[in-house]
């Protein structure tokens, strides 16, 4: 199979099952964000030698491939029944993971700034992209209820990535930075000199 098909040269692509759509179709936008998230998780995995972290991230990447196929295949497509779908069982696994990781983390008493270790920062970035993918799904939910399981999954995944980022920082012994409302930066020495 050739990598290039030239179908997309005019701004079109095909959903799985054969329907031709524009590349800014809501389904294409949503699974594009899911693909970006999947790539970010692969990037994040390159920052750790921890086998448990790698296993978790690999599982999530596989689930996101399922989600991408799910979104690329409307239930009305002729091959729909052959496509794996994201469902409640995947959400339950994420909730179990959130509860398990949260039990090992310091209690949150304030908002924290995204960042920390390289792995923690990468996971915070992945969480933000996950939220974008979830927002991309929102317009479809009103007209296509079959998208609801995917949106619930993405909502829970962003929470999971948040606690996973915190856990990565904890294991790296990197302190979290609290958000301080009304924070004002001290003027630099050069600025002070210019004011004199």
Task: Give descriptors for this structure.
196 residues; mainly alpha; Hypothetical Protein Ta1238, Chain: A; elongated
What fold name stands as the CATH topology?
A: Hypothetical Protein Ta1238, Chain: A
Choose one word for the global shape.
elongated
CATH class: Mainly Alpha
Instruction: List the total number of helices.
Output: 6
Task: Give the beta-strand count.
Answer: 2
- Beta-strand portion reads under 5%
In total, how many domains does the architecture comprise? 1
Which structural category do the helix and sheet elements fall into?
A: mainly alpha
Task: Please provide the ordered H/E string of secondary-structure elements.
Answer: EEHHHHHH
Proper CATH architecture: Up-down Bundle
- As a percent range, the share of helical residues equals 55-70%
What would you give as the CATH superfamily? Cobalamin adenosyltransferase-like
Largest sheet: 2 strands, antiparallel
Mean pLDDT: 85
Give the C-alpha Rg: 20 Å
Low-confidence runs (pLDDT<50, min 5 residues)? none
How widely separated are the two ends?
A: 69 Å
Side by side, the strands of the main sheet go 1-2
């Amino acid at each position: 199979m050739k990598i290039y098909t030239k179908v997309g040269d005019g701004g079109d692509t095909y959903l799985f099952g054969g329907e031709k759509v524009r590349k800014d179709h809501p389904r294409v936008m949503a699974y594009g964000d899911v693909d970006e998230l999947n790539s970010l998780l692969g990037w994040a995995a390159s920052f750790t030698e921890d086998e448990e972290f790698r296993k978790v991230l690999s599982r999530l990447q596989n689930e996101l491939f399922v989600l991408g196929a799910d979104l690329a295949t409307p239930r009305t497509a002729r091959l729909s029944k052959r496509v794996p779908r994201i469902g409640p069982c995947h959400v339950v696994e994420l909730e179990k993971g959130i509860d398990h990781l949260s039990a090992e983390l310091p209690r949150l008493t304030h908002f924290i700034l995204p960042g920390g270790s390289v792995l923690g920062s990468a996971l915070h970035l992945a969480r933000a992209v996950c939220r974008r993918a979830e927002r991309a799904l929102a317009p479809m939910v009103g007209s296509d209820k079959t998208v609801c399981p995917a949106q619930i999954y993405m909502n829970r995944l962003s929470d999971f990535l948040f606690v996973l980022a915190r856990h990565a920082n904890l294991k790296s012994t990197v302190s979290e930075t609290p958000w301080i409302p009304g924070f004002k930066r001290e003027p630099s020495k050069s600025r002070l000199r210019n004011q004199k």
